[in-house]
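in:
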């Protein structure tokens, strides 16, 4: 649709297409709809993600102040404010893009562990009568494992080092925290 003009309009290609099809109103409509969609996604994330922090803070892994629940709204208000504040800080400082890459790679590592666990559980445990067993044998977790490894292999060296550094910091933090909270898992 844009042809050679795409190189000059690479910042907002959808807006450029909408402008070509519907004029300046099309471009404005795309920009407004995109802003609303991003706002909705961020609002949902800011309210939902801190709830994952709540049980971790309640166990003492993270500072307990993050486990405070608002008396009227029953929301983890301190965790929500901290999460939103950190998000704004990362966005303003430009550190958001590397963190997005790090978060994606971290999620891939979670998927990797899930695939390995599925393979182990499939072999290690006897199946109770009537229990669900995924069709295809170990094929699905093996395909998942191969896909995750392939995606991780696309990472740059600096990203791999960052992932390993964050993992090492998390382990050190957990070990130190465990000294002060002995009943930590």
């Amino acid at each position: 649709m844009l042809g050679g003009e795409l190189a000059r309009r690479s910042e907002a290609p959808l807006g450029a297409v909408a402008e070509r099809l519907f004029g300046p109103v099309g471009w404005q409509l795309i920009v407004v709809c995109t802003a609303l969609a991003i706002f909705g996604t961020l609002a949902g994330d800011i309210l939902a993600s801190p709830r994952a922090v709540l049980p971790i803070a309640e166990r003492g892994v993270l500072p307990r102040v993050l486990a405070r629940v608002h008396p009227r709204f029953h929301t983890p208000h301190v965790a929500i404010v901290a999460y939103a504040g950190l998000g704004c800080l990362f966005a303003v400082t430009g550190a958001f893009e590397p963190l997005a890459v790090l978060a994606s790679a971290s999620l891939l590592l979670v998927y990797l562990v899930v695939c390995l666990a599925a393979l182990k559980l499939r072999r290690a445990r006897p199946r109770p009568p009537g229990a669900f067993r995924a069709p295809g044998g170990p094929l699905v977790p093996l395909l998942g494992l191969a896909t995750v490894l392939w995606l991780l292999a696309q990472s740059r060296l600096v990203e791999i080092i960052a992932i390993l550094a964050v993992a090492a910091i998390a382990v050190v933090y957990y070990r130190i925290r465990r000294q002060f909270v002995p009943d930590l898992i």
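note: Helices lie at 13-22, 24-48, 50-58, 77-93, 96-124, 139-153, 157-180.
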